[in-house]
Amino acid sequence: MSTYKNFNVDTDADGIALVTWDMPEKSMNVFTVEVMDEIEAIVDATVADSAVKGVVFTSGKSSFSGGADLTMIKGMFSMLEAEKVKDPANAVQKLFDAAGRMTWLWRKIETNGKPWVSAINGTCMGGAFELSLACHGRVASNAKSVKIALPEVKVGIFPGAGGTQRVPRLANAQDALQMMTTGSSLTASRAKAMNLVHQVVEPDQLIPAAKQMIKDGLKPVAPWDEKGFKVPGGGIWTPAAAQLWPAASAILRRETSGNYPAALAILKCVYEGLQVPFDTGLRIEQRYFTQVVQTTEAFSMIRSLFVSMQELGKGARRPAGQPKTQLKHVGVVGAGFMGASIAYVTAAAGIPVTLIDRDMEAASKGKTHSEGLVAGAISKGKLTKEDGEKLLSLITPSDDYTSLSTADLVIEAVFEDRDVKKAVIEKVEAVLPEGAIFASNTSTLPITGLAGNSKRPVDFIGIHFFSPVEKMMLTEVILGKQTGDKALAVALDYVAAIKKTPIVVNDTRGFFVNRCVLRYMAESYDMLIEGVPPVMIENAAKFAGMPVGPLSLNDEVAIDLSLKILKATVADLGEQAVDPRHMELVSRLVEKEERFGRKNGKGFYDYPPKPAKKSLWPGLKDLYPQKAADEVSMKTLQQRFLATIALEAARTVEEGIVTDPREADVGSILGFGFAPYTGGALSYIDGMGVKTFVELCEKLSASYGPHFKPTPLLREMAEKGETFYGRFDPYGQVEKAA
Ligand code: NAD
User: Fold this and answer.
1) For 710, phi and psi rounded to 5 degrees?
2) Which residue, by CA, sits nearest to atom 9 of ligand 1?
3) Cβ proximity of 355 and 363 under 8 Å
4) pLDDT tens digits, one per residue of 405-449
5) How many whole angstroms from 43 Cα to the centroid of ligand 1?
6) Ligand 1, atom 8: nearest CA belongs to which residue?
7) What distance, in Å, lies between the first and last C-alpha atoms of the chain?
8) How many whole angstroms from 517 Cα to the centroid of ligand 1?
9) pLDDT of 448-458, one tens digit each?
10) Atom of ligand 1 nearest to the CA of 420
């Protein structure tokens, strides 16, 4: 009988204790304070028990462990806040101690005197891999599901439980830096090649192989605790290192523009840590970790990219009292660019799909898209032939609407034309069973207007996908004026089934994401018109942390589509709704220069045949008198991009379009890559403080136009010292200002 809640300990006749981590009521093992306490108790017990010769540590779940638990990370921030009030002088010391708990517990395993072997049976992330690194032996299963990573940098922190010290003492420094500064995953064989695991075996050989290591006399001493230990490659003071380190800093600067304190801290930990004894290295890591955890970047990234993303994914906005829908049949009408991909992701989730178009030829062409994706996945070994065939068998092309009579949900992705959509809504509703939901994937037409064509607007909703559907993690769920709770619940159940993250927004022109994206592109039009050299515009956006420059993005979206949107805006809202200079610029590009974007090889960039790379169209500089580079402040350009988007996000909150700040933040990062280090468009404002943001907007509006004017809500919040997460608290209780 095991005395632990989260572990089973079973000692065999050879004296090897098999410790199996298997948390009750959790699908994945994660670190909690309780788990750490139990690990410590296990170390003490196995050390004290003379019958135990060694320990094999493994997991009872299909994965090994996902790393830290939400509550533990949240707890660290609330502890710091509380201590700052209670005992400000010692608050940071307490944080330092908390940050070191895992570090020194793993060190205790490493120095306990008996050999420990980690048997990695599945995904092994973060603190769990750091624990494994502290074991004397590591065996990993060769199952495809095994992914090994130290991904902390992706949420603004870094491997702070020995990762930055052990990885570069096992692998060469370049590979170690690459692994930790990108947070990317390793396969078991790559981990072995990097010297991070000792053996890779068939899944059923995992435990026997781990036990065998102990039986073969595995020494319970880490290499760095042996006399004469040498760092791979010779350490910091070698000619090779003299080449590596300047390059490493330069690459980091190029990749992060200095926006990610955690990534820089990894470099510092490794560089400084490799020059000192191991325990001192751990202490250096603990200090930097304590420093990084206190940055606005870490706080905001963890909140949005870890906590909020999980909460939204788990249905934080799902209306209460609605039973969960297991979708048995989904219809997709319109088998074009979007519809074909929507059918694919639906079938990939195991849901049968009928894919309808105007005729069989068009519908079948839509399925060809999935056939191509499946063939590609099979050839890369990502999908078995049987699974691929099964996926394709779930997609039925059709030109017959009666096949939708058993659908739970129908998503239309036909032409962006009110009349075409009206005809489709009527045809679908004529056969759709009662209670089934109709969703539109429109990108520009308000849902309430489209629902005006429906006999059952309560069951009508928007599910806005982003292209490429297979890759983009976000979907925007749009509520029309009359959309009911059931429609929302079904839409969210569907989005969860296809493993995407939803944000729920109220109806408006452009919804949330496109409204913000249009502001981003409009600001670049302003800059072009002012004569800012185009290359500075693109670079400033990247330095600000945007993954794609606005001109490049506009080329991807298509400049003729931008023109269409501008014209539709004028038609619907009047001339004053569009800046005439923007209209002139975009219509000149489209109508005079025939520059439509990437799709015709000519946009803000020229797209020569591969392998030549795209380059900014030289003619762009002739459109407006150019400023000299030193007349333009890169910093101001960066501020303009982020501020204009953040202001638009704030407007959507003020207008009641977005009601939960988590959705604006997650939507802005997943939808268009809004500078992730900020934690998203609203966290960008909260992070600097609303008052500072208002001052920045006032300054920008004086020089660059009234669109930067702070809104009444922002002014009021600045005056009251409020934050978005405080005023629009998603948890229903007022949080302290961040
Ligand atoms: P598309 O032109 O590639 O595909 C439209 C498909 O609808 C075509 O296959 C067409 O034959 C079919 N169709 C037209 N009338 C039909 C009818 N009466 N019955 C059945 N099928 C019909 O267009 P798309 O880019 O896939 O866009 C589709 C919808 O998705 C639009 O509403 C668009 O605004 C929206 N959307 C597009 C994107 C994008 O990036 N392209 C992103 C999000 C949303």
Assistant:
1) -65, 145
2) 336
3) yes
4) 999 999 999 999 999 999 999 999 999 999 999 999 999 899 999
5) 60
6) 336
7) 46
8) 21
9) 999 999 999 99
10) 18
